[in-house]
């Protein structure tokens, strides 16, 4: 399945979905992804020491 060697049946896909706790539509319908953009000027420093800056 991963390497496109075989195609799973719907029954097999249903079993995989049950194990993962998702529905088949979750796998087949593309999900909208949220993108967050943080500009350098908008960043704030919370913790800073000799090793890192967060």
UniProtKB/TrEMBL annotation:
Domain of life: Bacteria
Domain HTH cro/C1-type: 1-27
PROSITE patterns attached to this UniProt entry: HTH_CROC1
Single annotated GO MF: DNA binding
Gene3D superfamilies cross-referenced by the UniProt entry: lambda repressor-like DNA-binding domains
Name of the protein in question: HTH cro/C1-type domain-containing protein
Record organism: Syntrophaceticus schinkii
Top-level taxonomy: Bacteria, Bacillati, Bacillota, Clostridia, Thermoanaerobacterales
